[in-house]
Amino acid sequence: MAPAAHADGRSRKERAADAAIEVIAADGLRGLTHRAVDARAGLPPGSTSSCFRTRLALLAGVLDRLVELDEAVVAAVPDAGWSTDTPDQRAAIVDMLTDLLVHWLGPARSRTLARMELYLDATRRAELLPELEAANRRFIDRAAEGIRRTGVTNSDQMARLLIAHMDGLLYDALTRPYLGGYDRAALREAIDTLVRGITSPST
């Protein structure tokens, strides 16, 4: 029999994975233990171990949960309607991408921190690479399709450039907050510059 869902609709496994994301965001991967996740989730001792038997299984579970939660974000990014023919159309694309950054630095900040920790850890753990690659591929493919509709021929390359720059903005905002300049207006200016470069006739 499957374990009963929590009052908020999440299963015990989902609660453990969500708590693990928060632990990683707060304490880094060195703070990630089954006991710490139980405490963060408010679960009885041993609950996380029953869902994820090993540390590697727990890390894989975190990745699965990150992918699941970000699916809704990726699905909300249209792969049609991208056009830079008019200033208003360009502004709509810039606003959409800026909204993503604001989301990842605001409501989804813990997920962003955990994801970046896992990116670095994956350079030492080949087991984690396939899921990270799959998650990135979905977003790149959607961005590439949108960029293709603006008339850019090397859209896959430009999509990778777009994602790399957006990840760079996220990394800089999270690791160097003392530099400031990462309110919505500053993020929008950076994205506007990026979109202009990617969709310029020379590309």
UniProtKB/TrEMBL annotation:
InterPro entries named in the record: Homeodomain-like_sf, HTH_TetR, TetR_C_31
SUPFAM superfamilies documented for this protein: Homeodomain-like
DNA-binding span(s): 33-52
Organism whose genome encodes this protein: Amycolatopsis arida
UniProt-recorded name of the protein: HTH tetR-type domain-containing protein
PROSITE patterns assigned to the protein according to its UniProt record, in alphabetical order: HTH_TETR_2
Coiled coil regions, renumbered to chain: none
Gene Ontology MF annotations: DNA binding
Keyword DNA-binding included in the entry's annotation: yes
Keyword entries, A-Z: DNA-binding
